[in-house]
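Sequence and structure are no longer studied apart. As an example, we show below a sequence and the C-alpha cells encoding its fold:
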Amino acid sequence: MRFLSGYFTTSAISLGFLSALSASAFIYLYRFGFVFPYFQALLGLLSLLFWLKLPKTALFWSGLLTGIFWFWWIGLSFRYYDLTWMIPLVIPAVGLVYGVLFGAVGLLPHPALRAVAIGVMEYIHPFGFDWFRPALLFVHTPFGERLWQFWVILAVLTIVLSCKHKARFLALLGLFFALYRPPQHLSPAQLADLRQNLFLAPTRLPQDLKWSPRYRGLIIQNNLAKIKQAIHAGKKAVILPESAFPLYLNRDMELTRTLLDLSAKITILTGALFYDRNPYNSAYLFQNKKMRVMHKVVPVPFGEASPLPLWMSRWINTLFFDGAKDYASAKSPSDFSMAGYTWRNAICYEATSDRLFAGNPRLMAAMSNNAWFTPSTQSTLQRLLLQLQADRHGTVIFHVTNGPGTDVIVPREK
C-alpha cells in the first residue's frame, strides 16, 4: 500500500494530466477544424520532454490519461451488442493498458533509455491494436513523420536533456533533418484526373439500422441509385463504403447480376460480407461484367477476430457475441486496376496498418464503417493516422465511409 500511495499524489496526477493534455490536444483541435502547425510541433516536443523526464508515478498517469483521451470511444461499439453496461468498464481498462506501458518506461533511469523505449512503442501493439503511434504527434507540423525522423527528434531531445550547452545547440541543428519530405509518387495532373473520374459515394446509415433486415431493401436501392448517379455523371469508377451492402453478397445472386450488368458502364468497388465456410469482411470489384473479391487482411482486434488463444477466444465469443465466429482474413494485401491506375485495397482498420503499405503503393482505395463509433473522435484519429501513412509512403488515399471521414488524403510536401 505504501508503494501504491506514491501514485495517488496530487503532483503525480497533475503532471500526468498536463502531459496527457499536451499529447492529445492535436486530436481535438483537428476534430473542430483547427490546424496550427508550429503550435502543434511545440506540443509534440513538449509531450516527448514530459515522457523523457517525468517520474514513474506521473508517467503512469500520463499513459493512462493519454490512452483514455485517444481511445475513449472504443467502448461505444458495445452499444450494438446489448453490452452498454460495459462501456464504463472498457474506457478505464484501455487507459490502464497504456498506464502500465508508460509506467514501465518510467522505470528506466536515463532519458536515452526512455527515448529508445518511446521509439520502440511504434512496434508495441497491445492485443494487436496499433493506433497508438507517438510519431502521430507531428502530423500536420513542419516535421516529417517518417520513423527515422521521429528517432532524430528523440535523439535531439535526449542530448538537450543530457549534455552541456554547446552540445545542446549542435543537437538542436539536428532537427533540420526532421524537416525533409520526399516527393509524391503521383503527379498533380494524375491526381486531378482521378478526382475528375472517380465518384466517392459515402453513406450516413446509423449502425443500429444498417444491419436491420427491415431496411435492407431500401439500403440496396439507395446504393444502386448512387451507382447510377455516377454513371450519369460520366465517371469511370464509383467507390462505396465498407459493408455498403449489409449482407453476404456472394450468396445474393440477383443483386450480384445487377451489379455485374452495371459494371459494363462503370467500375464498382463496394464493401460487403463474403461467406465460404468462414465469414470474411470483403471488398467486391465489379468491372466489365466480371467480379473479383478481395478479403480484409488485418481484422479489428476483438471486433472481428480475437487476438487471444483459441480456447479463450471461443469462450469470449460465446459469452459476449452469441457464439459468433471470428472473421477469416487474407494472407496478403490485394492490388487491382481501376480507372487506368493500380490500387491497393484496404478495409477500415487495416487502412492504417503498416502491412497494407508494403511496397509503398501509389494509390489506396480505403473503405470504412465509422458508424460504430459515432459521435466520437474515432474518425478524427483515423484521418490523422491515414495522413501519417500517406506522408510516410507517398500514397494518395481515397477514403469512403459510412459516417464521418470521407476524404482524399494526399501526402504533404514542403
Observations:
- Residues 348 and 373 are 13 Å apart (CA to CA).
- The chain is about 45% helix and 15% strand.
- The longest helix spans residues 10-31.
- The chain has two domains: 2-179, 188-409.
